[in-house]
Design brief:
This protein is mainly α and 47 residues long. The chain contains 1 helix and no strands.
């Protein structure tokens, strides 16, 4: 089970965290990139 603590809001500024716990867009896999593009397309077309 994953025991990592969820960092909320700006807590990362005042809390020590491991670099591998940071989730950045440059590390998205192909599936995550496709879902993000689908969301952008939907927003552009429907909202």
């Amino acid at each position: 089970m994953d025991n990592s603590k969820i960092i909320r809001s700006g807590e990362f500024l005042v809390t020590d965290i491991e670099p591998n716990d940071i989730f950045i867009p440059e590390e998205f896999n192909e599936e995550q990139k496709m879902i993000a593009q689908t969301c952008r397309d939907f927003l552009e077309a429907e909202v």
